[in-house]
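This part of the workshop introduces the protein records we will be handling. Getting from the letters to the tokens is the skill we practise here. An example says more than a description, so a record of this kind follows:
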Amino acid sequence: MSALHAALDGDELRRQLTLRGMTASDLARLAEISPPTVSQALRGRALSPHSVRAIICALAGVDPLPGSAALIAAPASP
């Protein structure tokens, strides 16, 4: 991975979307990035710093749905 690129934790990104009641398409629209870029983020692929920043800022601007954290099951242990 290039020093100019960074990857997000795809599982955590999915969790954050779920907490906010958002879809990947919602995130792409709100972050003003392409749906394929969101798909790459969800797979943990390297993104440009601009895309990472756009995703983080978009998520920060949407409050989690009340009570949503309690509804999401923790990942099963192996």
Q: What stands out?
A: The longest helix spans residues 49-60.
